[in-house]
Amino acid sequence: MVKKKIGFELEVYQSTDELPKELVGLLEKAEEIRNKAYAPYSNFQVGAAVLLQNGEIVLGNNQENASYPSGLCAERVAIFHAGANFPNQTITAIAISAASKEYLVDRPAGPCGNCRQAISEYETKQKSPIRLILRGEKGDIFVVDSMTNLLPLGFDNSFLFDS
Description:
By secondary structure, the protein is of the alpha+beta class. Helix content is 27%, strand content 22%.
């Protein structure tokens, strides 16, 4: 038996003043769209801003439904919109911001498993990493270089074809 440890590094910024300028605007867009989320059941609002290689920013927020599985997370709303409307554009970064109407979200909220898989699919499709910028309402900002860091041993199309 051999044991292996899987880990990754991330950048931690204490404020937007420390964040690279090109990421500040993207995070601000995620925060703005977060406030328009349809979250009447959980009162947990999430906004996502997807930056495309051509400079276009595509926005999404969570959309809840009384039939819970029918809702959709902000990350998938934004990334699927980008894929549908800009299919040949590379996604370079996604900023994700989370807040609650019931308490202060003071730490970054990472994407759920379904969103991690969807973002991973786009990394595979475009053959390049997608940078993630994560923040709650306040507190630290996490920057991760690729979804593969948050989804180690991920499932991709290489499992579907005999190589």
